[in-house]
Amino acid sequence: MKRHPLEVLATMLCGTILGDQRTVAAAEKKFSGRVSIDSRKLAAGDLFLALSTGQRDGHLFLSDAAKAGAAFAIIERHFEAEFVSLKLPIPAVVVADSVLALQLLAASHRDQFDGLVVGITGSVGKTSTRSMLYEVLQARYSGRQSPANFNNTLGLPLSILELECTQDEFAVLEMGAGQRGDIARLCEIAQPEMGVITSIGLAHLATFGTPLSVAESKAELFESLPENGVAFFPGHDPFALVLKDKAHCRTVTVGEDAVNDWTIQQVRAVRDGYRFVMDGQDYFIRTVARHFVQNAGLAIAVGREVGISNAEIADQLAKWQPVSGRCSLIPHSSLTILDDCYNASPSAMAAALRTLEELGEREETRTIAVLGDMAELGEISEREHRRVGQLAGGLSIDFILAVGQHADLIAKAAKATNLSSHRLAVARDVEMAWMLLECWIEEGDVILVKGSRSMGLERIVENLRSFQPAVRDRFHRLSA
């Protein structure tokens, strides 16, 4: 961010300065322009912003930040007296709300940034679409993308503050929502010129109530776009008309159905990934998940919009690697591990199960589905867990291990499809799930691990990484 004098920062944040002229002058000279909220990662010269959230209080680490070389700090008023008593060798800007201060700093920094800002949201597919688009835009431009899951009212401002205004030419920012108004608030800060909505699904219904409410929440991205902006979304989405109506700019639709402006054609599985054709160009993406083709299509459409050629985009997408925990393959000498445990919704669960079935059929080997709870579904939770069990039992999947509070719902629905009892198990927690799973695993198995992040199924993935299965004489496929 711009190296403002502390007096200017204090005015911008409606705050006051704690510190004498000498320490303030030294801080202004030392300030690097970087902002840190973690004293463990802070570099000398950084501004330490003491965030006060429900999970932690950054004020407790002010001494650590000063020792690490912070130039100055931003603190909340409730800690002013304590800060004075600490007698730290750095000044502070005192504000009413540290989270709001972070957002105001980011908004100010965004005003200084002349590059392209693309916002991405959706019920599923945000992260893979974001990472694909980042890869595509690098064909001609330099820029940044949101790191990891920095997609909320804390993470997005931090992503913006990382932008180098004199060097970066674009920013691809992921946007998540826990309630109505969240996307609108993020857009106030980010001021996107283009927006991508990947899909509308049955996610976070415990908060939103209905799929229509989800659609309207995601559409806040389109409502924020300028008249000369562009809104990208799947034209075949059940809520496509809602999304289009909310956009006051040009819209571009992408998908396999002919109703779309950009049509994805000839989708086919090949070794190590999928090939497809769009706008006459053959594309390849390295993934086992067919549904990632739609995300790639959206990334291609944005790339074409900013003048990147089909050939350049194809070269870039061929380099793309799936993000860990999002339908990514884990290297293993004798197993195929499909790690999709970062999160789960009904549509994402269905897509992962079909991917598992396709992998098993392609490699002519056994398949195991480890299925955890889908969180935040509200009133439809029981119904959707039963649907997952019914789908899993009806597919060519050899073993199903249901984990969590709703495991019985999945298991009973799967059993109702005539799945044999010896191919079905229920575990209340991850520890029990692992004990059951390791009894099943044999060399060559394809194993899907899928569930909401709160389930902690990544522990099963970590166990699988080092697990060496028994080698047994067996048929590749089990009969029912």
Number of helices: 19
Radius of gyration (Å): 25 Å
Classified in CATH, the superfamily of the largest domain is Mur-like, catalytic domain
The mean pLDDT is: 94
Quickly give the structural class: alpha/beta
Query: What oligomeric state is this?
Result: single chain
Overall number of strands: 20
Shape: globular
- The percent range for helix content is 25-40%
Query: Major β-sheet, in short?
Result: 9 strands, mixed
What is the domain tally?
Answer: 3
Q: Which CATH first-tier class of the largest domain would you pick?
A: Alpha Beta
Strand content: 15-25%
In short:
The protein is an alpha/beta fold and 480 residues long. It contains 19 helices and 20 strands.
Walk me through what this model shows.
- The chain has 480 residues and is an alpha/beta fold.
- The protein contains 19 helices and 20 strands.
- The protein has helices spanning 6-12, 21-30, 62-67, 80-86, 98-112, 126-137, 155-161, 182-190, 205-208, 211-218, 220-224, 240-246, 292-305, 310-317, 346-363, 381-394, 407-415, 430-440, 458-466; strands at 16-18, 35-36, 47-49, 72-76, 92-95, 116-121, 143-145, 170-174, 194-197, 230-233, 250-255, 262-270, 273-278, 281-285, 328-330, 336-340, 367-371, 399-403, 424-427, 446-450.
- It starts with 5 loop residues before the first helix and ends in a 14-residue tail after the last helix.
Chart the SSEs and their pairings:
Layout: H1 6-12, E1 16-18, H2 21-30, E2 35-36, E3 47-49, H3 62-67, E4 72-76, H4 80-86, E5 92-95, H5 98-112, E6 116-121, H6 126-137, E7 143-145, H7 155-161, E8 170-174, H8 182-190, E9 194-197, H9 205-208, H10 211-218, H11 220-224, E10 230-233, H12 240-246, E11 250-255, E12 262-270, E13 273-278, E14 281-285, H13 292-305, H14 310-317, E15 328-330, E16 336-340, H15 346-363, E17 367-371, H16 381-394, E18 399-403, H17 407-415, E19 424-427, H18 430-440, E20 446-450, H19 458-466
Parallel strand pairs: 2-3, 3-4, 4-5, 6-8, 6-9, 7-8, 9-10, 10-11, 11-12, 16-20, 17-18, 17-20, 18-19
Antiparallel strand pairs: 1-5, 12-13, 13-14, 15-16
Helix pairs in contact: 5-7, 6-13, 6-14, 15-16, 16-17
